[in-house]
Design a protein that fits this description.
heterodimer; A: mainly alpha; B: alpha+beta; Tick-borne Encephalitis virus Glycoprotein, domain 1; four-stranded antiparallel beta sheet; 8 strands
Chain lengths: 249, 264
Amino acid sequence: MASEVVGTLLHVAYACALAGYGLAALGGARGWRGLAAGGGGLGLAGCLLGVIAVAWSTGRPAFYGPYETVMMVGLWLGLLAMWDALSRRLAVAAWSWGLGAVLMPWLLFTPIKAAPINLIPGYLWMPLFFELRLAAQALLLYAAACHLAAWRGAGNGAAARGRLALLGGWGAFMAGELVGALWSYDWLGDFWQWNAGFLSSTSLLLLMGLGLHLPPSWAARPWLRLVVGAAPGVALNLVTLSHQMGMGS
Amino acid sequence: MKALSSLRLALAAMTALVLWTAWGVRMAFSPSLAPLLRVLGDGHFLTQPSQWAQAPALGLVWVLGLLALGGLLAINLLCCSLTKLVRNWSWRNALLLGLHLAVLLVMLAHGTTLVVGYQRQHLRLLPGQSLVLPDGSALSLAQAHLEPQALAACLRQASQKQTRRRPRFPRGPGWASVSLSREGAELGQGRVAFIQPWEADGLRINLVGYFCQPGPEPVVGAILNVSRRPLAKPFFAAYAAAMACWLALLILDLRRKRNGPAQD
């Protein structure tokens, strides 16, 4: 009975997030502030409900698996978008909601459920690694939204905010790598492993670094700024979701 | 010096490394190239040219290219730090300098794992067995213990001949008692459990799994990882310093943005 209630809650939360961010993106793009704010609020509430339902049913924070990943990233992204909408930066908010709406349909190809993973009692590095990864995913998607808005004429302020989000996302990802290295050192005895996971993390970290090292003359080219500003967010979310969906969790 | 410290060189080296490490990800899934990555993890690949002949040519190109590109980026990082950031003094540049130098130390610590220290993964030992490690130490397993429920699962898996699979159980309920000696003299003995390694004589022993031998009196063996990483602590210290500089830089940039004029 309880599992049926949880299952229903997870589905309702997902439907709210999917519909909410879709409507918010539409409202933001058209300049319909009421629809944008209402849709953004619905999406945010959906993500929050999903995250709470996972925590309630599993007794741990949401941090792993396709459902938890999408809802947590959606939650952070929705908060950033709402902050932008309230600060009258509707263009950036609309792109953030749009990217949130693009993220949500991934769950159509995977079961709507919490990941079958347990915490190691008293061991914080493992969940912290994933939480920092999720924060990095959201911040880098937000950076992509800012750069998309700047490219479509929202001004240099949006690009500057995008660069700051990129710096934030890079740091969150790198902090996650530090925590991951501690976890690996405790678990496997070494802070580095020569495998696909560690190499793809290095590749992504360097990709994020590109956007932070553009010479001023190159940064003045909108298309180049867009490519290096948006690529890390898109790549990190694609890599994470495809990996987690491949594991069938 | 000017060319070596340019942002364009940094971008070129980083772009090349993005592609190179992405190629490395593909390598990890290739049956012919993946063993090379395991050899790199074991250490001493660069200092033992005899191993080069056994490596596939494509893999060797990848390793040498990775070292060349990593070295180029490290030189660029150092030159840029010592010229642009040192000459134009400000608090922001001081933080950037600290961040860049800490990242450089992290890169160097990664690089030195190829020549200093070693690791051996998934060593399977039964009680009473011992094996000699690359530095001459001998690791012995005195006893491995599993809680009854986990032991039953282990034996079931063993009877189904699935022992070569990654053990899906048990991460928690058990421990192994190990000892370390050199030339007959005992260096120490301790107990390891999952995520609870034991350290002695600069060696780190991690319990990563168990295996079982069914029979009238089932025997539980331990799967152990052994590593000697003398630069682990400097690595973590440099990483932590980099994160502290990043956090301070982020706060500085956020405050600057908040105090500055509205831009859009």
